[in-house]
Amino acid sequence: MMAGNEEVDVAAMTEKVMDVVMSQAMTMTLIAGILALLIYAIVFLIRRKKLFTETSIGPMPVNGILPVALVAVGFNVMVSMLLPLPRSRRAGSHLISRILLSSEMEMW
Prior knowledge:
Blueprint: E1 2-3, E2 6-7, H1 10-23, H2 25-47, H3 51-55, H4 65-82, H5 89-102
Antiparallel strand pairs: 1-2
């Protein structure tokens, strides 16, 4: 592929993009969560409703925290064992490179 006079290396570009995304994943997740909470707050303010009464969220008893934490850890382990994830980020980026290279769409 040619972009002007220079050759575009799709594999190298894909690897750079994957590195940036993987290094900023926690920040992007945090920003997405904060934006979601702001949108929820705005929607509930517009509707003049209270979030906790509408969703029936109440205080949690102290003796219920440990079982919930154990279930969360169990689900985390279960998902980690069941999902066929690549062994490294490079394996994932090479897969994406192959998909991009095999696609018949032109790069912008």
